Amino acid sequence: MFTGIVEIIGVVSELNHQSEDGGTTLTISNASEILGDCNLGDSISINGTCLTVTQFDKSSFKVGVAPETLRRTNLGSLKQGSNVNLERAVSASTRMGGHFVQGHVDTVATILKIEPDGNAKTFRFQPKDKSVLKYIVEKGYVTLDGASLTITKVNDEEAWWEVMLIAYTQEKIVISSKKPAEEVNVEVDQIGKYVEKAVEGYFLKGSSGEPAILQKMVERIV
């Protein structure tokens, strides 16, 4: 579990593609600030993707990226020298400055345009999987490349949403250096998924054909 508050920006120093299984091993450097309490098997979010530390030293660490992860995220487009957002998994004493983030990417989104607004920037995104738009609401949360951001505008018909990055945030996350047509990892707010599942239980029959909860309640009353 993460908060979406990026701790530092790391650098991809090495990529090793595994021909036998189709996966990739990444080495992330410039990460000494988050490795002081690191242990093998720890989870670190890399661009919003929860990955397991398999090896580390004082300033760098390695993770394995499975083929499924490469298909579902933008990690497959990383190159040597690419910057990535990094965040350690939460601890019991972590301040919840963002929102509950799992590190499970739902889809990728393309940057449609970037517009300056004073010293801030407005980014417009269009998701590859349009179904995630039902979880995108104005003033709600969305995780983009591991950063917890507030949605400022949504257009369901044209299938896009916008977020604004203030000057401080621009210095702390990798999205600010990206350009139109580039992709970001997207994780929607999981609370919306739980609400949807709960509401469906009231109106839809279960997989085994049992009546919906609402129907059961009505039958008891009448």
From TrEMBL:
Its EC number is 2.5.1.9. This is Riboflavin synthase. GO terms for biological process: riboflavin biosynthetic process. Homotrimer. Pathway: Cofactor biosynthesis; riboflavin biosynthesis; riboflavin from 2-hydroxy-3-oxobutyl phosphate and 5-amino-6-(D-ribitylamino)uracil: step 2/2. Residues 1-99, 100-199 form the Lumazine-binding domain. One of its GO terms (molecular function) is riboflavin synthase activity. Catalyzes the dismutation of two molecules of 6,7-dimethyl-8-ribityllumazine, resulting in the formation of riboflavin and 5-amino-6-(D-ribitylamino)uracil. It comes from the Eukaryota. Lumazine-binding repeats lie at residues 1-99, 100-199. Keywords: Repeat, Riboflavin biosynthesis, Transferase. InterPro entries: ATP_synth_asu-like_sf (IPR023366), Lumazine-bd (IPR001783), Lumazine-bd_dom (IPR026017), Riboflavin_synthase-like_b-brl (IPR017938). It is an enzyme of class 2 (transferase). The keyword Repeat applies. The keyword Transferase applies. SUPFAM superfamilies: Riboflavin synthase domain-like. Signal peptide: none annotated. CDD domains: Riboflavin_synthase_like (cd00402).
